[in-house]
Amino acid sequence: MRVPVLTYHAQNIAGNDYAGNDLVAFGEDLRLIDDLGLRIVPLQSVVARLLGRSDEDLTGCVALSCDDGTDFDVRDLRDPTWGPQRSLKGRMDDFIAERGADAQPGLHLTAFVVASPMARTDIDAQCLSGQGWMSEDWWAQAAASGRFAIENHSWDHNHDAIRFPGIAGMARGDFHQVDDRERARAEVADAARYIDQRTAPRRTSLFCYPFGHVPDYLLREYFPRHGDEHGMLAAVSDGACPVTPASDRWLLPRYIRGWHWKSPQDLEAILRDATGR
User: Fold this and answer.
1) Which of 67, 79, 102 is CA-nearest to residue 254?
2) Element at 117 (helix H, strand E)
3) Alpha carbon of 187 to those of 151, 178, 180, 182: distances in Å?
4) Which of 132, 136, 190, 206 has a CA that sits 20 to 30 A from residue 226's CA?
5) Is 90 exceeded by the pLDDT of residue 129?
6) C-alpha span between 233 and 144 (Å, rounded)
7) Is the CB of residue 5 less than 8 Å from the CB of residue 45?
8) For residue 65, which of 19, 36, 26, 20 has the smallest C-alpha distance?
9) NodB homology domain: from which residue to which, for each copy (predicted)?
10) In the chain, how long is the greatest CA-to-CA distance?
């Protein structure tokens, strides 16, 4: 098993071409993956295989994820600067319409969302356009569609855009501050409960470290020792390599669009190297 996990941020819109727009890149990347003869599978299937809960053959497979949970994940919106934008969901629909549902029957996207409504309001106001584009009313429908999973990106991202103080005195803007059980419970377990209530009967099982910051306490203590409390099966960060049988379940690697690849040629090289195709 050597499965590259590709990650997008739908709100990354700095133009209407591949280089400056994760939405445009996502649409083109779906075609590239298909052209290379690779198979898209849910990230949850990769985790199940890693943990020995499945014997599915994942040779030549790719998994897709997106971070932060903005409405650009599922809704076509008008960016104030760059105009109308087709969502990630819309790009998936376009791919199916163009190539047929049989082209990628496992087409699936894992969306890591921020739980706290107040945090999302502040992040939206400071980092997006202040138009309520980090809502939660789409989570349940997306999760029920079979094309999406809604997963845990923490309670509040410990984001520095948030007006109210950090949990248990945490300095904002640094997720490494999650260094004890009180903070871990608030950022992981409380977030899971909130998201699960809104996507029931589906439940979260994967965590994504905000900012790519991996606190040693979460990695070494909280995740492996307190599973009954947080309910997570694995956690993802960056790492720029494929998931293999040797991967640490609490530090699964991903490739980040705009960082690890910036062009279709970059991605093709990644995919060929990762999968051996």
Assistant:
1) 67
2) helix 117-127
3) 13, 8, 11, 9
4) 136
5) no
6) 20
7) no
8) 26
9) 106-220
10) 52
CA atoms within a 13 Å half-sphere pointing along the CA-CB vector of 209:
27
User: How many angstroms separate the Cα of 242 from the Cα of each of 1, 61, 146, 252?
Assistant: 9, 10, 24, 9
Long-range contacts of residues 135-143, Cβ cutoff 8 Å, at least 24 apart? 135/71, 136/69, 136/198, 138/71, 138/73, 138/74, 138/75, 139/69, 139/113, 139/195, 139/198, 139/199, 140/198, 140/199, 140/200, 142/73, 142/74, 142/89, 142/111, 143/199, 143/202
Tokens of 259: 């960082």
Question: Is there a contact between 65 and 88 (Cβ–Cβ < 8 Å)?
Answer: no
Place 277 in a pLDDT band, splitting at 50, 70 and 90: confident
pLDDT given at position 19: 96
Give CA–CA dist 208/229, Å, rounded: 17
Q: Which helix (H) or strand (E) holds 110?
A: strand 109-113
Pick the CATH number of 5-275 from 3.40.50.12160, 3.30.390.50, 1.10.530.10, 3.20.20.370: 3.20.20.370
Q: Could you give the CA distance from residue 29 to residue 225 in angstroms, rounded to a whole number?
A: 38
Residue 164 burial (10 A CB sphere; 0-12, 13-18, 19+): exposed
What digits encode the pLDDT tens for the residues 201-226? 999 999 999 999 999 999 999 999 99
CA distances from 256 to 4, 9, 117, 211, 265 (A): 11, 9, 26, 12, 15
